[in-house]
Design a protein that fits this description.
alpha/beta, seven-stranded mixed β-sheet, Glycerol-3-phosphate (1)-acyltransferase, two-stranded antiparallel ribbon, about 325 residues, 15 helices, 9 strands, acyltransferase activity, transferase, globular
Length: about 325
């Protein structure tokens, strides 16, 4: 039986601290989750500081320990349910996302779909693109994500164990990336890596240096590269700067600092939320794999692609 939005779910949809409730409620609808959040704890998410009391209650309920981590295989059936029942309303009603120039997409997998990354928050720019591509093509689209989304101690509390794997997340590590490419999958990839995510509000329209590894893998496994531009993702977390000092203290790869952080301290469940902004995606070009590239050639090709896409972004920003 599919997940149906109740009045409470629609309240959570439009109330920022409620998005984490939606994610967990949807998981619990399809999976047994005895160690997950319960209704009392969900209710506490919605009041200032209530998340900390909910965390304490859950920790006591589990016998003064953290939830047990589990490994879950990618689940295309659940990914489709989550995409249609939770993500699609967020993508269309909240972010009002649009996909342009879809005729530039390949007719069938595999593909490496690259995107300029921004926002310094939960990767909604990639999530929304994955939803739009999945609905447009029917592909099982997978996101190459930082290991923090798989095993960071904080996320074990926020999201259900195995959640990222079930939704098709691929760890942004050399072996995992290469294995996914070898299996001819459709991957969403940020060539700027974490340099793009942490560049902050001041450099929001400037592409950071590309990591050339995706070009070598494209050449090795003969997988085309589809360059895509997103306009609007810079406003997912506006006015944010990365604090390296705080990030090291909290053992995080980045830690954004902005006026919104004060609200986040009162409502930590807002970690999966982002500011409302319209996300517009433009499929700019499809590059067929070349013969095997040397290290130097891949670096040169990566910089050429970055420069061309920077010009495209400048033009799109000027027109918007």
């Amino acid at each position: 039986m599919s997940f149906q939005f109740s009045r409470f779910d629609w309240f959570c949809f439009w109330y920022p601290p409620g998005w984490l409730i939606l994610f967990n409620r949807h998981w619990q609808h399809y999976h047994p989750d005895p160690e997950g959040w319960n209704w009392l704890e969900f209710g506490l998410f919605l009041i200032p500081g209530g998340f900390y009391l909910a965390l304490l209650l859950r920790w006591m309920r589990l016998g003064f320990r953290a939830p047990k981590p589990t490994f879950t295989e990618p689940d295309p059936i659940y990914q489709n349910a989550f995409r249609e029942e939770i993500l699609f309303p967020i993508v269309t009603r909240y972010f009002q996302a649009e996909l342009h120039d879809a005729e530039n997409l390949p007719t069938e997998p595999p593909a490496i779909v690259t995107l300029n990354h921004a926002g310094m928050c939960f990767p909604w720019d990639f999530v929304c693109l994955g939803v739009l591509l999945g609905r447009k093509t029917g592909w099982f689209v997978q996101l190459l994500a930082h290991p923090i989304f798989f095993d960071h101690p904080w996320l074990v509390w926020w999201l259900p164990p195995g959640w990222a794997q079930a939704l098709g997340g691929v760890r942004a590590e050399k072996d995992s990336f290469e294995a996914a490419i070898a299996e001819k999958k459709v991957l969403l990839y940020a060539p700027e890596s974490w340099r793009g995510l942490v560049k902050g509000w001041r450099h929001r329209y400037q592409l950071a240096k590309y990591d050339p590894s995706f070009l070598r893998l494209s050449s090795q496994y003969q997988v085309p590269i589809v360059s895509t531009v997103c306009i609007g993702n810079e406003s997912l977390h506006p006015w944010a700067l990365n604090s390296q000092t705080l990030a090291k203290w909290f053992k995080m790869p980045m830690l954004p600092v902005s006026p919104l952080v004060l609200v986040f301290v009162l409502f930590p469940s807002m970690g999966v939320w982002a500011m409302r902004t319209q996300l517009k995606y433009y499929v700019r070009s499809r590059q067929l794999p070349e013969t095997e590239l040397s290290r130097a050639e891949s670096v040169q090709q990566a910089e050429k692609m970055r420069s061309q896409l920077q010009e495209e972004i400048n033009q799109l920003v000027t027109r918007s």
